[in-house]
Amino acid sequence: MNALRGSPRRSRLSPAGLLRRQWTTAPGASIALALLVLVGAFLATAVPRAATMLHTQAVHEQLAAVPAAELDLTATARERPTTGPGTGPTTLDDDVAAAWGSTDEYLGAIVDGMPADLASVVDTPLAMLTVAPVRAVVEGAGPSAPSYRIMAGFDPRLREHVELTAGEWPAPVDAPVPSSAPVEIVLTDAVADRMEWSVGESRTIDVEGTAQPVVLAGTVAPLDPDDGIWTHIVPALEPSVVDNGLAPPEITAVAFVDPASWSDFASVSMPLTLEVWVPVDIANITADMSARLQSQVGRFSSELHAVGSGEWADEYFTVGGLSFSSGLRAELEAAAAAAAAGDAVLATVASGPIGVMIAVLLLGARVVFERRREGLELVAARGASTGQLRGILALEGLAIGVPAALVGGVGGTLAFAFDGGPVGAAVAVLFALTPAALLIVSAPSLSPLRRARADLGTSSDGRLRLLGELVVVLLAAAAVAVLFRRGLATSSSAVGVDPLLAAVPLLLSLVACIFVLRVYPIPLARIVGSLAAKPGLVGFLGSARALRDPSAGLVPVLAVVVGVSVAVFSSVLLGTIQTGVEAAASHRVGADASVAGRPMTRAQLDEMRELPGVEVIAPVYSTRSASLSIDGRQRTTTLIVIDVAEMQAVQAGRADTTPLPDSLVKPADDDGVPVLVSGVVDAVTADAAEVRIEGDPYTVESVVEGTTAYSPRANWMLMDRSNAEPYTDTLVPRTVLVRFESGAGGDGDTDEIVSALAEIAGPGTTVQTAESVADELSSTTTVRGLVAALIAAIVLTSLLTALAIVLTLVVGRPARDRLLPLLATLGLDRRGRRALVAWEIGPVTAVSLLVGATLGLVIPYLVLGGIDLSTFTGGDGQPDVAYDPWLITAVLAASVVVTAMASTLAASLGSRIDVARALRKEEEG
């Protein structure tokens, strides 16, 4: 009796026990659905974070390729800085602060007043004052000796940027300037070597007509040669050398004077340039702050900022308010455009897999429901209400979805340490609730009395299907029409992912699914008719069942069509980008090779001409800024000076070069100098009554759109060297185009010639070929990220396709469990049973593969008209759609293999039989 009164055991018939037994019975379907939710939640949280990471890396990559002087917030003035100490603490040395403290305080106040985002990406503001170059005369030098010119430089933070390598730091000036007392300077090692100026040597410069001795006190080396400051202080690390072979070389460089001595020079009448700048730290810039930074930089640049008092100081005015300029805004806009283009491509590709993911979730939920149907029907037959049944299904759905979504969401969050915004978390929550919602929807069909033949329908069902198909077709047609009419989505960088672009591929895939489901029964019916008259059961029965009771509904058809179309479209996209990159690289180089960097002497040009393997070279003699007058309004353009005959010889036979009319070599006449202009210049001067370059008229021989191999600028004007003398002081090339001899195009020959050209050009120059530029463009973060995303989309879609096919046959298994055992008792062997299962999915899968491949080839023409791929290729315009037959064939073959393997696996699983169990089941109907 006491034993019977022992501790109570939990009843297996209690509500909790019944739920536990139901959930632990045949858990495979629930586990599969949970894995789908986990993957979906992971992707929902990880993909936005990964996109932010890639966009941030792309921003850093793009900004790193731009000189700091073009990114930093920079202002210049001809007035002198305000001298004297500041009123607050400073990080300057005490003696320097006595002269520069006030200026440093003004600059610090500018940073303190910046908006938060802009202030977070800038460093300590800097200032540099340089005097116009003056000749440093070497005693006893002859008229053919090189001309050495120095620009006296005052850097308040000099000792923070360089270290002493020989001699001493320059001593403070202790006498009025000019005087017979020498002024001490320091030069960088490279400058001192090139000027042949030894420590302790004295030379003289002209200051207000007086010979001022200058002594080299020491030499210095930069602490960080890659520091952005050296792009502002030009030429400091390396001297500027002008050597055209017609006169002695002219060597110019910055000579640093003790910065605390500026007050002794301030009253000297000499032209100078004061440059102040706020360095931008690109490492602190993230993609998500790009839009705000663009706005803040624009607002900051439009305002005047006090850099000094602007007062009269004894004999001169000091600097007052200045406006700062920066290329940061334009570079951020370009990076945002590239990011928007990447997002548009990914959204276009991802829309299909997203649709398949949703469809597979529906299919997975249906499998789970079918596994629970019998138990729930029994509960319903014993009086359970619809609300109770829905509650049971909701609990299981939440048990499946919430833990899986939590794990996937946390995993996606930890995968990338970047902020992806709240959208990913919201989608993960939807994934968590999806299983419960899908199972609840299934509750009304739980009575065994409500079962119906799957191959029989009503007229109302047909009308609803037709109406739904018509809506999908009309939506797809309208979306494509709007897309064609609108053209490129130029505002995508501001509005984000374009929903129209993202929707078109999925809508077209749905139209393709409708086509498949409507068309494939036609040939299948003819097959049934032909097989009916032939001996053998398998072919006739399989085709008849596929026609009357098709397992392949919308979900597997959508999976196969989208999977194959995404794979083919991705391969076409990759081929288009690669072809565009190669075309852009060839146009950018403009010859077999391009040498660019430092100014090149006539001797170096002669060496290049005599180099074995080089047929001819064509220097770009100048790419200076020139003033363009348009009805009295001044604008600037880049004036390109070449020898037309030389350039025509180098670029002969190339299809991607800038066309050079022979009329460019005509001498200038009363109508003006003949020029070639870019589309940008032509657009801004089209309606002008009078246009002039540097005050002279010109005649336009031709207009060329885009950039040239001679300069990366799109705003340019080109003239022949014979007409250029009035418009440029010197013709010292920094770029040389090279044509190789015929037969010297092998990789080994090319490498040897490139190496030899680089050796002749010297340090600081680069030698590029079309192949090297193409490799460089293909290795950018944006392109690499896009390629990785496309591959991931192909893999994910292939897996979803395989899963959809397997789940489709799992859903149809109950009917097979009643049919196949009966056929087995009549002598149908295993091979025949597998063939019957294959008939359920085979015909529609084959048609779906064909339609999906065709759709993948057509989609590029429809959607690439709305995506600017030039941000990936580096070209001037949209590349043409290119089909790589080998790549397309390989991708298509892989899709076919994956689909076939999934169908084979599903057929194998679906052909297993249990005769005893089948005989206990009631017949369908």
UniProtKB/TrEMBL annotation:
This is ABC transport system permease protein. GO terms for cellular component: plasma membrane. Residues 792-913 form the ABC3 transporter permease C-terminal domain. One of its GO terms (molecular function) is transmembrane transporter activity. Keywords: Cell membrane, Membrane, Transmembrane, Transmembrane helix. It is found in: Cell membrane. It comes from Agromyces terreus. Belongs to the ABC-4 integral membrane protein family. InterPro entries: ABC3_permease_C (IPR003838), Macrolide_Exporter_MacB (IPR050250). The chain crosses the membrane at residues 344-369, 389-417, 423-446, 466-488, 500-520, 554-577, 786-811, 836-863, 886-910. It is a multi-pass membrane protein.
